[in-house]
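Contributing: when you submit paired examples, paste them exactly as shown. First protein:
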Amino acid sequence: MASVQNAAATFDFLAVNCVPESHVWTEQKDYPVVPESAGNDAVPVVDMADGTDGAIVAVARAAEEWGGFLLVGHGVPIELLALVEEQIKCLFARPVPEKERAARGGGFKNGYGVPPYAIYFSKLMWSEGYTFSAADVRSEFRRIWPDGGNDYLRFCDVMEEFHKEMRAFGDKVLDMFYKALGLSADQIAGGEVERQIRDTLTATMHLNMLRATIARYPKCPEPERAIGLAAHTDSGFFAFIMQSLVPGLQLLRRGPERWVTVPALPGALAVVIGDLFHVLTNGRFHSVLHRAVVNQDRERVSVPYFLGPPKDMKVAPLDAAILQGSKAAFRAVTWPEYMVVREKTFGKDASALAMLRATEDEGDAELVQDMNN
């Protein structure tokens, strides 16, 4: 496990002219890829600046039919997004020994390396990343810059400003989702559960140089033989993904299954719905399987900003999401409980959400039984 977790810290992507066997990806179902986002396979683009009910209707349709979409007119400064991308590139360009100081492992969920779920696959992904709590930027990145300095201060200032903007943005999008479920502004403000969710949203970032997480996807000499990020669903409520102007994020469309590449629109933020939001909305807004592919000519950077519940909150379908005459389709679950169930399904033809399906007279005790099996 440790060798997989630290693989990104020990592999020099720029030093190879072919994909080594360790990174040749065969552990994925080979669905066709739609060559471009168009027609019935045009990834929805919602303009938040619209300020009308039309934007709410568009969000509802996109969440129901796709599980992911692009947001423009969101109000997050374009200049800030450019600074974030610049700082991520500077971080990943640092010498390997410096990044290795922050390698994930030994019980650390945060830090530099491959995505945590990579340990469930025998092959390695063509990417390097850094996962951290958005509220702990300065303490976390002392692992990279133990002596501080101007580079450290600049990086932290930019990431903290990004967190501030994205957290406020998260509240706006959550309210859009609530309205898409049919709740009025008064119901949102007065609803105990709705208000508790908004007040306690927790944020994690991943930096990808190819999840805050931040990530980098380096140029790949044989992109058809590698994968930047294996197909997966996110576990939390939803994620905003800031990506550089290099396409690579793909969403799986159903009936028939095919991968659709999300356009890299300047200034747009991608929204990807996670499994616990699927539960919260009783399956109306569905989580989406997604992945990241690489290309031969350009590296790609992405920053997924994940929002989810606190660890001790039981997530169950909202009353507003349960249609009249229907019942809750899922059992109540905390995020840690769900992760135990989810880990059992990695690399298998099994669904963690299916294991949360409620049946007649079913209670939380059966979830505990599933977790222990």
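Second protein:
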Amino acid sequence: MEIEGWKLVVDCTGEGVLFVQADADVQLADLEAAGLRPPFPCWDQLLFDVEGSSGTINCPLLLIQVMIRSNHVMCDAIGIAQFMNAVSELARGLPSITVKPVWCRELIEMRNPPVSDTLPDVPFVPMVERSFTVRASDVVAMKKCLPPLLRDTATTFEILAAFLWRARTTTLDIPPGEDAPLVVAVNFRDGYGAGMSLPTGYYGNAVATSMVPADAAVLRRGSLGDAAVLRRGSLGDAVALVQLAKAAGTTEYFRSTAKGTKVRGLRSFNPANLLAISDTRNIGFHRMDFGWGEPVFAGPVSTFFTMCYFIRVKDGDGEDAFVMPLMLPRLAMDRFASEVERSLFDDANHM
């Protein structure tokens, strides 16, 4: 609930966690045959929208059914994964949980109300959602197309983000001169990013978003496979911009975000051009085991137009792979699929 000064507090009513019991007329094998990738078949029927459970204010902290709905004000994805792994440990009969939860919200305190610019709404057009699977061999092929300096330093996330950013900008046909900003989530727990030395077990929000603008023409210009120089429009150029966005996530930036202040200005942009990426591969959802083995799929079940998740999965051969669910207008989705196929084919020819 909200109190004076825009502060959010938990009203401990003692009502517990909201569980939903239901019967299904399908088996997991039926869903697996349809493909356990976003968008899931029948997911809107699997997720019962309990009245009053989907908001931020005056709603339950957690809703558990076939899928899980949590209140993002209380914790980020790492926090909810920590909680679910703790539940799974108790379900398996462990005497205590491995990671003890830590409150310590005073370490990251919002002292002033946040100041945000009002952006126009994204124009409504019919959308389609599709998932794209990227295997380790695809990442290796893309890495070999980078300039030598980046080839040795670029992470899998930076390569995938750059690849997705360029391909999406191209297929949306964003006019030259318009910004196509990239937003990445930066984790500030100890051992990640700038590091806030938060105690082990802290499950609150310790993630901030960092944005880097780029002219659409710069992202689209040049060939994906040019590894000779780090030039405008190459995959290497986009990787360097992703690294810039990550590097901007300093401790000072995170604290200023928590305090509701601004540390730097951004040019105005068309919100339909924005791409936000959240990497869930190493959060821990895939390790949850309630006694019958690790999950076949664990991650976001859907996405929206300006958002993409990187989700850890197994491919048809049982090897580690990544899924990228994406939502685009239908014609743009057809172009994106062709761009992905062409780019990966070009990468193989440039190795």
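If you have annotations for the second protein, write them as plain sentences, like these:
Confidence is low (pLDDT under 50) at residues 113-118, 222-232, 260-266, 347-351.
Residues 330-349 form the longest helix (20 residues).
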